[in-house]
Amino acid sequence: MVNTNIVRKVDKVGRVSLPLSLRESLGFSRQNPLKMQAEGSCIVVQKYVSSCFLCGEKEGLAVYRTFPICAKCRALLKKAADEWPPQQA
Ligand SMILES: [Zn+2]
């Protein structure tokens, strides 16, 4: 952890601006989504990397409605759809 001694207030609607020096040093650009999570008493902000909604894979994603799905899961879903309805035993 880098101690910057930068202190910012949360505004009326809950926003906090990220200092330019931190954004630049961490490679955060203006339009990139960020992921936020609580860890103990800290809020961790990191670059958001999209992953497959079903398995967590980060490569070969395509978005179906709002869900990113990887090529392997798309193939499995297509196979399941092609075989629908399942054979009765
Ligand atoms: Zn997947």
Describe, in short, the structure shown.
By secondary structure, the chain is α+β, with helices and mostly antiparallel strands. It has a two-stranded antiparallel ribbon. A two-stranded antiparallel sheet has the order 3-4.
Could you characterize what this model shows?
The structure is a single chain. The chain folds into two domains: 1-48, Ribbon (Pemi-like Protein 1, Chain: D), CATH 2.10.260.10; 50-84, no CATH class. The protein is elongated and about 65 Å long. A hairpin with a 2-residue loop joins strand 1 and strand 2. Strands 1-2 form a two-stranded antiparallel sheet. The chain has helices at 20-26, 71-82; strands at 34-39, 42-47, 62-64, 67-69. The chain has two helices and four strands, in the order H-E-E-E-E-H. The chain has 89 residues and is α+β, with helices and mostly antiparallel strands. 4% of the residues are buried. Bound molecules: zinc ion (ZN).
Reported by name, the CATH topology of the largest domain is Pemi-like Protein 1, Chain: D
Using the alpha-carbon principal axes, give the shape: elongated
CATH level-two architecture of the largest domain: Ribbon
CATH top level of the largest domain? Mainly Beta
Q: Are there runs of 5+ residues with pLDDT below 50, and where?
A: none
Number of domains: 2
How much strand content do the residues show? Answer: 15-25%
**Strand segment tally:** 4
Mean pLDDT: 90
Total DSSP helices: 2
Quickly list its features.
elongated; two-stranded antiparallel ribbon; single chain; alpha+beta; Pemi-like Protein 1, Chain: D; binds zinc ion; 21% helix; 2 domains; 4 strands; 89 residues
